[in-house]
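Human:
If only I could read backbone structure tokens as easily as an amino acid sequence. I am handing you a single protein, as its sequence and its fold in token form. I hope you can help me see how the letters and the tokens relate. Thank you; the sequence and its tokens follow:
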Amino acid sequence: MNMRLIDNVIVPYKAKAFYMFMMFMWVASVSDYTSFNFGKNPILMPAFLIILAFYYIKYCHKSYKPLWIVLFLNILWNIVSYFKYGGYIGINFPPFYSIIIVHVAFNIYSKEDFLYYFEKMLVMFCSISLIVWLFANILGTPFVSFMRSISVIQPSSPTETYSFLFGLCSHIQMGIRRNLGFTWEPGRFACWILLGMYFNLVRNKFNIKNKSFIILFLSLLTTLSTTGYSLLVVLILFVLMNKKSKLSKVIIVLCVVLVFPTVWGLSIMSDKIESLMDLDAGLGSIEYHSVEDGMAIVCPQRFTGIYVSFMNFVNDIFLGFNQLSNSYVSAVLYKHSVIVAPSEGIIGILAKYGIFYGAFFYYWLIKSSSYLSSSLGYKGKLMFFLLFMGISFSYEFWENCILMYFYLCAFYHKFDERYFDVKPTKARL
């Protein structure tokens, strides 16, 4: 009998579906109730850890070497940071948890399994968000008032109401309330949708005539997101690379030529891009908040955020700043009067962890992008890398457990290919 099959654990589809649901709970950002913070989440956080421990004990039976390597790097970096900055050795908890969560995921899912459950769970959340979005835009104030009445914590801009995994956005553009799904901001929700569309195309051999793709596409439209609409171009290029039919390619090209100039001409696109490129205005807003709000957390966006992250990076190329309060911009330029937290992740990961630890993630992102292409059978070895960089331009996703699964898949496969030989079960959701 094949020894590889002996070592495999049969994981029931319900256990796989529930774990994927929990992974979405862990990455959802519409409410503090899903955060890795005992202070903000004193009830559910212990429950999360119990569930994680159960899955770890029951299903983790493969090589632990990749897990130990990543944990060792994380702990070593934290210890060195402790000697530089002092204070407590807080093993940077969000990525620490994510590493464990991802290790369990590698033990219970094959690549195909993970893509299936990821897409199905995302489509389910998108379907609910479309219903909430429709009610909010059609019924207006009565529905918004209802959502406020069941809001679990005090909302803050741009999220008007929190209801555990779903909320309402306070931003209204062209008379339409934007859809933010299970996140705190429509653009971030758009990033998740783009990932779902990407892997839907892979799973369905680039056939967009399926229910899931339609739901994802409609959800993307409701976000009114500059990031989402811009990166849609990347997905179109992805389809062009992999479509064999010349007629299909011609149709796609015509859509690009005719539709995208119109989309980019919309006020939501042109005005947003112009404001994001105004570096002086962005830096001015940081200064304003630092004077007026004391220890407020200020989040410079896009281009300003990249500039701020670059200043933080060159201040300590080798080690990084560890905690935001230690960053060059927060500690030196603004004398701890404000915490400046750029939302971007392109340079931010290097600014936080330094060139060596940060390069580890970059290296395996590129390797995993190539690995996903070859193992799933599509053209575009760097396509996932480009998509990840695209969403990282606006948001930090490196410490997110679901994204960590994707960019560490080549790393895990290098040490033990059985991580992708999980014995299949009948997949249902």
Q: What stands out?
A: Confidence is low (pLDDT under 50) at residues 1-7, 273-281, 287-293, 423-429. Residues 3-242+351-420 form one domain. The first helix runs from residue 3 to 7.
